[in-house]
Recover the amino acids of this structure.
């Protein structure tokens, strides 16, 4: 055990120059962005004129998680902007600094991810450097509103790393942590819905056959991707991108709570997914249940059963 610890420490010190190289090479092209101001393209909506982020209290956090902004449901992105506002006020330097630090962290995570996949440092270093300085990342780093890109990528990559560790050590805790990080990535930006496909590619690259167990293991990830892929549909009916605040139990927050609560009252047996697909209705009618509500109720009803089948502890 002592020898293993010394070996791990030796590897850490060997990686230090590579980490420093990645940080310096990635940071230099973006340092100029720290002097940038807010722009009139969504920065006003998300930061300067957004009262949701200007008061970091429990009611404001509840509001952030209760309604979309500009037809996008990204509560964790808004929460990070709210933390910036609590520290920096409306000084754009702090927001740009956070974006840059997130991008640097993502670049290091890319290095670690490729290294875990290939066990070779040179390809990992090249991939990380290309990722760090690629022009496609300029908009995501230097534009404050695009915080959603770098933040979602952070949780996307950490979810991948946790999954790889789950596969390597067969400890179910890393499976659940990966799933939780995936949810946070989706709540930062919906582009993270591609994660289940990337997980399958990771299995393929490490020589794992695509058996039925592999796909069942990914079911919770695919269901979450489906939910967030269809979530924007709920916001297209709104005026100006913000869902109207309805009275009482018809408000979006209360409606989501009702759906979650009722989903656990539905019997979860092996036929639940089939009945969800075949039955025109699985919940009794109520004033809150339009077609959209019925759909989410069915999806939430199917989720627990699929999650139980895919859980590593069930194998």
């Amino acid at each position: 055990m002592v020898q293993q610890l010394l070996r791990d420490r030796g590897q850490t010190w060997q990686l230090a120059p590579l980490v420093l190289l990645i940080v310096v090479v990635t940071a230099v092209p973006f340092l100029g962005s720290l002097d940038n101001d807010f722009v009139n393209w969504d920065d006003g909506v998300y930061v300067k004129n957004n009262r949701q982020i200007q008061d970091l209290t429990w009611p404001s956090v509840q509001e952030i998680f209760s309604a979309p902004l500009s037809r996008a449901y990204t509560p964790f992105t808004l929460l990070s902007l709210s933390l910036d506002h609590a520290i920096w006020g409306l000084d754009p330097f702090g927001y740009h600094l956070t974006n840059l630090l997130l991008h640097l962290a993502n670049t290091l995570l890319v290095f670690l991810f490729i290294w875990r996949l290939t066990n070779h440092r040179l390809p990992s270093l090249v991939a990380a450097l290309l990722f760090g300085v690629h022009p496609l990342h300029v908009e995501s780093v230097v534009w404050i509103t695009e915080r959603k890109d770098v933040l979602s990528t952070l949780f996307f990559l950490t979810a991948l790393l946790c999954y790889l560790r789950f596969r390597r050590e067969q400890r179910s805790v890393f499976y659940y942590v990966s799933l939780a990080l995936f949810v946070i990535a989706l709540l930062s930006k919906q582009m993270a819905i591609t994660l289940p496909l990337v997980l399958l590619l990771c299995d393929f690259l490490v020589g794992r056959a695509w058996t039925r167990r592999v796909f069942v293991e990914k079911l919770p990830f695919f269901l979450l991707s489906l939910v967030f892929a269809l979530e924007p549909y709920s916001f297209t009916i709104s005026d100006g991108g913000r869902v109207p605040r309805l009275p009482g139990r018809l408000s979006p927050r209360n409606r989501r709570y009702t759906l979650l609560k009722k989903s656990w009252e539905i019997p979860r047996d092996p036929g639940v997914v089939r009945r969800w697909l075949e039955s025109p209705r699985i919940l009794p009618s109520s004033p809150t249940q339009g077609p959209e509500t019925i759909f989410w109720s069915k999806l939430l009803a199917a989720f627990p059963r699929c999650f139980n089948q895919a859980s590593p502890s069930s194998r």
Notes: The chain has two domains: 14-234, 245-307.
